[in-house]
């Protein structure tokens, strides 16, 4: 094999390697390419996710508002209960003092 044949053989091998690499790249690109239907499905999924996040955010706001209302109502009921218990305690004390007064005056 002389110099010219060696150069030609090397050029053919390099061209074959280049062609094989290009074909492999094209094949990988072809197999991993996303179709328009897939892109449409991804768009629909993204929109559904966005809508779900908005709904979740609205639910969290509603929950926080409702929780605040419930806490205020609880504090109001606790204040009413304390007032009722204080009134009951005062009524019991007054009843007890009236019983004592009646017993003292009834003995005489």
Structure description:
- The protein is mainly alpha-helical and 108 residues long.
- Helix content is 94%, strand content 0%.
Name the descriptors:
about 110 residues, single chain, mainly alpha
List the helices and strands and how they pair.
Blueprint: H1 3-32, H2 36-107
Helix content: over 70%
Tally of DSSP β-strands: 0
Distance separating the two termini: 149 Å
List low-pLDDT spans. none
The largest sheet is: none
The whole-angstrom Rg is 45 Å
What overall geometry do the principal axes of the alpha carbons give? rod-shaped
One letter per element, helices H and strands E, the order comes to HH
Structural class: mainly alpha
How many H/I helical runs? 2
Strand content: under 5%
Mean pLDDT: 93
How do you describe this structure in short?
By secondary structure, this protein is mostly helical.
């Amino acid at each position: 094999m002389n110099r010219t044949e060696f150069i030609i053989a090397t050029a053919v091998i390099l061209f074959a390697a280049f062609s094989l690499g290009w074909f492999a790249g094209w094949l990988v690109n072809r197999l991993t390419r996303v179709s328009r239907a897939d892109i449409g499905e991804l768009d629909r999924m993204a929109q559904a996710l966005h809508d779900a996040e908005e709904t979740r955010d609205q639910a969290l706001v509603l929950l926080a508002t409702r929780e605040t209302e419930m806490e205020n109502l609880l504090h109001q009921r606790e204040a009413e209960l304390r007032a009722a218990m204080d009134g009951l305690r005062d009524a019991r004390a007054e009843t007890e003092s009236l019983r004592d007064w009646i017993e003292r005056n009834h003995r005489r």
